Amino acid sequence: MYSSGRNDECYTPRNGVLPILKYIPAGATVWCPFDKAESEFVKEISKQNPCVFSHIEAGQDFYEHEPDHWDVLVSNPPFTRKRQIFERALSFEKPFALLMTNAWLNDSAPKQLFAEVDLQLLMFDKRIQYGRREKKEGYWATPPFSSSYYCRDMLPKQIIMERLPN
Question: What is the pTM of this model?
Answer without folding.
Answer: 0.89
